[in-house]
Amino acid sequence: MTTVYHCMRFLVACLLAAFLFSSAALADSKSERTQMGTNITVSPGEETGDLTCFGCSIRIQGHVYGDVTAFAGSVTVEGTGQIDGDTTTFAGGARLDKGSKIGGDLAVFGGKLRRDPEASVVGEVSAFNGAGWIIAMVALPLMLLGALLAFVIWLIRRMTRPAVPAAA
After folding, report:
1. What does the domain layout of the chain look like in residue ranges?
2. In the 8-state DSSP scheme, what is residue 21?
3. How far apart are CA 18 and CA 4, in angstroms?
4. Would you say the C-alpha torsion 125, 64, 59, 23 has a positive or negative sign?
């Protein structure tokens, strides 16, 4: 099962890489950070905007004024770390230590949520633990696309069959 889990993490990271590169080029603020394969750390006293990470993890000890998103990686908010926006992880977990704050929603898909009782989340918390959610989010749409493609091929073949003359 772990091999399937790692393959799905890699697949999700690859599929979303195109979005990463297109949105990174359009970023407004220099304080926004986007990484692929290199962990992001926001040190104590440091302030930044949105954080996006593909195939890596995000560790926050300072203040993030925007949203935090990790694909195939985890998000850790330590000590007095604070996120003003939403936090989302796909194929990775989230850990909120004592005293940490999230001002928006927290969503964990395909990972584990570890939350100290004294950690604060202002918005909604959604945790879809396990690799089954990743499979459902990726495999089911691909299966539907495959079925649609098979139907189109069947229609084309049916329409292009040569006419058979009637027996006399």
Report:
1. 2-159
2. H
3. 22
4. positive
Residue 96's φ and ψ, nearest 5 degrees, are -115, 115
Please name which of 123, 122, 128 lies closest in space to residue 108, comparing C-alpha atoms: 128
Is 90 within 8 Å of 70 (Cβ atoms)?
Answer: yes
Measured on CA atoms in the order 120, 37, 42, 27, is the torsion positive or negative?
A: negative
What is the per-residue pLDDT across 35-64, written as a single tens digit (0 to 9) for each?
998 999 999 999 999 999 999 999 999 999
pLDDT tens sequence across 111-166: 889 999 999 999 999 888 766 666 666 777 888 888 899 999 988 888 887 767 76
Alpha carbon of residue 118 to chain centroid: 26
For 124, left (φ over 0), alpha (ψ -120 to 50), or beta?
Answer: beta
What are phi and psi for residue 129, nearest 5 degrees?
-70, 150
Q: Which two tokens stand for residue 53?
A: 């990470």
Q: How far apart are CA 34 and CA 75, in angstroms?
A: 14
Structure tokens belonging to residue 58:
């995000």
Nearest one of 135, 108, 136, 93 to 5, comparing CA atoms: 135
Residue 150 identity: A
